[in-house]
Design brief:
Keywords: Monooxygenase, Oxidoreductase. This protein has one domain: Luciferase-like domain (TIM Barrel, Alpha-Beta Barrel), CATH 3.20.20.30. The protein is 46% helix and 16% strand. It has an eight-stranded parallel beta barrel, surrounded by eight helices. Strands 6-7 form a two-stranded antiparallel ribbon. Helix 2 packs across helix 3 and helix 3 packs parallel to helix 4.
Amino acid sequence: MREEEECKNSGVEIGLYTLGDLCPDPYSGKTVNVQQRIREIIDAAKLADESGLDVFGVGEHHRLDYAISSTSVVLAAIAQITKRIKLTSATTVLSTVDPVRLFEDFATLDLLSNGRAEIIAGRGAFVESFPLFGFDTNDYDALFSENMDLFLKLSENETISWNGHFRSSLRNAEIAPRPLQNRLPMWIGVGGTLESAARAGRLGVGMAIAILGGDPVRFKPLVDVYRKAGTDAGHELESLKVGVTGHGYIAKTTQQATDEFYPYYSNYWTYVNRQLGRGGRMSRADFEQMTGPDTALFVGSPQQIIEKILRQYELFGHKRFIAQMDIGGLPFKKVAEAIELLAVEVAPIVRKETSR
C-alpha cells in the first residue's frame, strides 16, 4: 500500500530505453562491435540508476545490425550493478516467444533485481523472429492474443491447466520460479491502432505509446479508447497506466542539441528505412521541423524537453515517459551527457509539476 501511495504522489516516471542498433558513425564510418555496444548499454543503465532516473528498457531484435536479442539476460546483468531503477523489456515480441519461458525468465530477473522487473509486450516492427522461431506471419495477431492470455494466467497461478492453438496444452503445470512482486507489471506497446489500445484497456495492463514525431494530439484518441475500454471491463481508472515512449536528445541549448543530434538521427532513419525497403534521407530542414516546439520529437534544451513532456501530460495524464537517445551511432560520451541533463535538470521539475 505504501508503494502504491508513493507511485500516486511522485509524478511522472522518467527513464530511458535502447534498441541497441549498430549503425556506423556518420563521421568515421566505423561501427562499434557488439561487445562494446552491450557494455555501453549496461554503463548507461548504471548512470541512469545513479542519477535517479526511474526506468531503463532494453529492446529485442534478432538480426546482425542490432546488439540485443535476449533482453532478460542483458537486464539481469544490469540488475547486478543497479539498485533502484525499474528494468523493462522494450519491447518483447510476444507473438514469437513462449509465454512460459518468458514468465520464468522475467520472474528470475525480478528475484535478481529485488522486485524491479517489467515487460512491455508488442508485435514488433520487424518480422525476422517469425521464421527464426517457426511461426507464420499470417498468425501475427492470433499469436499475440493467445500468448498474452497465457502469460496473464501464468502471473495469477502457480499451477495451471490451459489449452491453446499454437503451443502444447498445460495440465497442472507448476510455473516456477514465482516473482518477488505479486505479479509482473505488463504493458502493451501501441504504435497507433485503436484496437491495440482497446485490447490493452480490456486486459487491464499498461499502455506504452510510441510517439516518434508529429503533433502528439493525434494520439489522444488512443488514450481515450484505452481508458474507456478498461473501465468498461471493470478495471479501476487509477490502475490503467499510460506511458509515452519517444526519440530524444538533450544538450545545454536547443541549437546545440539540434546541431549535435541531426547527423546521427538522419543516419539512423536512413539505415532503418533501408532495412524496411524505403528510400530517402532526412534533410536538415525536415529535422528542424520535426523538432519544433509543438512536435513529439524530444530534441532540445532541458527547458524545451520539460515543456514538451508537460504538454503531453496535459493531453494524456500519463504515468511514465521514456526516451531513446543512443541511436544512429551517437557516441557514448554524448549519450552520457544527455542522460545527466535528463536526470538532473528535466526529471525533478517534471516530477514536481505532475505530482499530486
